[in-house]
Amino acid sequence: MSTADHDIPAAGPRTGLGTRLWAHRVDYLFLVPGLVIFGAFILWPMLASQYYSLLDWSGFDSRRIFVGLRNYRELLADEFFVAAFWRSVWFTLATVPLQMLLGLVLAVILNNRLLKLSAVFRTLIFLPVVTPVAVIAIVMALMLSPFNGPINDLITGAGLVQRAVDFLGSPQLVMWSLAGIYVWKWTGVTMIYWLAALQTVPDELYEAARLDGVTGRQVTMYVVMPIIAPFAVVIGLISAISALNVFPLIQATTQGGPFFASEVMEVFIFRTAFAPPSGTFPQLGYASAAGVLFGLAIMGLTILQVLAVRRTRRKEPGHG
């Protein structure tokens, strides 16, 4: 027997799962607070809403009637629900492409090392992201106000319009106005995503392009874009999921008005469950069914995001 054979320890008997858990019991104790929070604020509401969606229940009394899938059937025939659903889809399609394009342009500009004060510009662009939604809602309501709002003073003074425009009070303009506010607030996040993608471009490619006499625009179009293109799918899906969760902004600005013109899915669910029109009662079971359907839509986008990430990784060098 060689000396190397003596250096190999003999394999001991396998220990059971309970023994291994007990051996690391102190480590697992640190998971308990996170599991409690996850169960109380995520898992339990998800399971409870699925159960409530099968009930005819206002949420404020003990009378609960099991109705099965009736809430779901009524929702699909509810014109307010259908309108809110498609309004959410429209809002996503209107904001995500513009947000991605602006974020990409800003990222390419600010990624230039020759640009002075790029860190300052990044901070200024990212500042709306960390500003509370309530503050932005108040400021934007004042700026867009038809009564001496600075934006209306500017466009009327320049002769672009004859009279003040009610951006947040017009059913035809309110969603466009909210989309503009949303893009302005969240483009900084998309810019950060693109900046992270640009960091994957090797410096050697920039140097080789300069030696070949390639212009800056050509480097961006034919060198940088093909490398960061796979990230567009992931960034787009993340932005789409974020655009579907726009309740704080709309609730703080228009509360779904005027005349339900800005009521998206989350606002519809809140109104149905907690703030019904005068003369009607809350419908927690009905709202829970709407929440389940909305959650399934977001889950579908999340699954697409996971598949897109896996496909992007497979295309990277070194992956089969």
TrEMBL record:
It is found in: Cell membrane. Residues 85-305 form the ABC transmembrane type-1 domain. CDD domains: TM_PBP2. Keywords: Cell membrane, Membrane, Transmembrane, Transmembrane helix, Transport. It is a multi-pass membrane protein. The chain crosses the membrane at residues 28-47, 89-111, 123-144, 173-198, 219-241, 286-309. The keyword Transport applies. Gene3D superfamilies: MetI-like. InterPro entries: MetI-like, MetI-like_sf, UgpAE/MalFG_permease. GO terms for biological process: transmembrane transport. GO terms for cellular component: plasma membrane. Belongs to the binding-protein-dependent transport system permease family. This is Carbohydrate ABC transporter membrane protein 1, CUT1 family.
